[in-house]
Design a protein that fits this description.
Structural class of chain A: mainly beta
Number of strands of chain A: 11
Order of helices and strands of chain B: EEEEEEEEEEE
Order of helices and strands of chain A: EEEEEEEEEEE
Largest sheet of chain A: 7 strands, mixed
Number of helices of chain A: 0
Shape of chain B: globular
Largest interface: A-B, 23 and 22 residues
Radius of gyration of chain A: 13 Å
Oligomer: heterodimer
Strand content of chain B: over 45%
Chain lengths: 111, 114
């Protein structure tokens, strides 16, 4: 099993709150990713990073932001949560190959 | 447009039975195709990877096939177990991206009943 961790696993929060979803990996991978997944739907890439101080937006437009100050850490922040942000958020990492190792995900509910 | 289509959307089988899941893709250029298993509330875990030159690859009771000419893949599960209940996702990688761009299907939700 891959050494990639996400916290919290579940989060229920009110509209307008600021939240940060944590993702850490201990494999030394340079590339990291954030995906959004709704039930029965495919994963959509919302952010990715090639390495420290590198961040890019993915295919799906997202109001979230990310940072990559350390290789092992890739947090995602929502400044003002809305019900439309309710979803599952999956973090992944990869080395020079393209196999991505996924974390367990964070199930976010915004009320 | 690069796409990955999976069928059926959902499937229910009895424990011990076999089943086959299908994946059609239009991704080009093609690098490889993976089947992932995603348990409820968990992240996907890779089961098999197949490159252009590979036709069949097995991982225990899971056997994947690839026809690169017709751009079709299948995942066959033999002697199903209750723990096989999960979503099975077909993921295709393109060759042209240094990012390792992945295209995800929506998955087939498999339920195994006792």
């Amino acid at each position: 099993e891959a050494d990639i961790y996400q916290t919290p696993r579940y989060l229920v929060i009110g509209t307008g709150k600021k939240i940060t979803l944590e993702c850490s990996q201990t494999m030394g991978h340079d590339k990291m990713y954030w995906y959004q997944q709704d039930p029965g739907m495919e994963l959509h890439l919302i952010h990715y990073s090639y390495g420290v101080n590198s961040t890019e937006k993915g295919d799906l437009s997202s109001e979230s932001t990310v940072s990559r100050i350390r290789t092992e850490h890739f947090p995602l922040t929502l400044e003002s949560a809305r019900p439309s942000h309710t979803s599952q958020y999956l973090c992944a990492s990869s080395d020079r190959g393209d196999e991505q190792y996924f974390g367990p995900g964070t199930r976010l509910t915004v009320t | 447009k690069n796409q990955v289509e999976q069928s059926p959307q959902s499937l229910i089988i009895l424990e011990g039975k076999n089943c086959t899941l299908q994946c059609n893709y239009t991704v080009s250029p093609f690098s490889n195709l993976r089947w992932y298993k995603q348990d409820t509330g968990r992240g996907p875990v890779s089961l098999t990877i197949m490159t252009f030159s590979e036709n069949t690859k097995s991982n225990g009771r899971y056997t994947a096939t690839l026809d690169a000419d017709t751009k079709q893949s299948s995942l066959h599960i033999t002697a199903s177990q209750l723990s096989d209940s999960a979503s099975y996702i077909c993921v295709v990688s393109d060759r042209g991206s240094t990012l390792g761009r992945l295209y995800f299907g929506r998955g087939t939700q498999l339920t195994v009943w006792p």
